[in-house]
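Hey L., structure's done. Input below.
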Amino acid sequence: MRPVEKLLAVAGAEIGYLEKASNAQLDDKTANAGDKNWTKYARDLDALGFYNGRKNGYAWCDMFCDWCFVQAFGVELALKMTGQKLGGYGAGCTESVNYYRKIGRFHKSGPQPGDQIFFTQNGGKSFYHTGLVEKVADGKVYTIEGNTSSAAGVVENGGAVARKSYSLTYSKIGGYGRPEYSLILEEEEDIMTQEKFNEMFTAAMQAYRKELQDNDSGEWSKEAREYAVSSGLFAGSGATPDGQPNFMWEDLLTREQVAQLFYSFAQRNGLA
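Output:
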C-alpha cells in the first residue's frame, strides 16, 4: 500500500466518529456523544507529548489529521513529514500552516490526494479548519475531516468525522500543506520484504541464466556433448547470434528435464 493510500485508509476508517460529552468511552464511535470536544485523537496525542500541552477538550480538526499521520507512519515520521517538532504548536491550524511553510510545502492551489487542506476566513491571514484531501475530480476537492459535519460548506466544531467536498474555487480554501511522503518511501526502500526479495531474486536469476544460455562449454565435456547431440538426446533451444543451434550447455537442468533425458536415452536403447 502506497503512503497516501495508507493515510487515507486510516482516516476513512474513522468516518462516523462523534466527539464525546465527557472523558469517557472515547474509543467508541458513537457512544457518549456530546459537544465538549473530548476525543480519542487528542487523548492519544496527549499521551505521546505530541503538543505543547494537553489538548483533549479543545477543537480537534487538526489533531485528527495529526493522529492519522501517527497511526499510519509513527510519531517520528509524522512530525518530520509535516514539519513539526515534538511538543510543538501543531494542534492549531494557523501554526500547522506555518510549519508547512517553513519546509516549503504549502501551496495555494493544485491539491493532491494526501494533502492537508486548510480553510481561512480572512484571505489567508489565519486558518480555522483543516482536513485531508481524499481525491480531486471534476473541479472539486474531496476531503475527510475531523470535527465537522456532513452539512454543506466548512463546518468547524461540527463534532464528527465526515467526508466533504468543495469547489476548487471555493473562497474559504486557503491552501494545502503537502506532507513529505518521500520520507516514507526512502524508509520503505531500506526494509526487505518477502515480496521485494522475491522480485530481486527473480531478476538476478534471469540475468544469471541469460549469461549461461549460450554454447560456452569446457573442453573436458566435448565427447559427451557430441554424443548427446548426434544421438538426439539434446536438441537445443533456439539459435545463437551466429545461427548455430543453442544448446545452453552451462544452463541449469531441472528434474523434469533430467527425467526426459533418461527416458529418451532408455527409448533409444530399447529399455523403455
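Residues 192-268 form one domain. The mean pLDDT is 92.

-- N.
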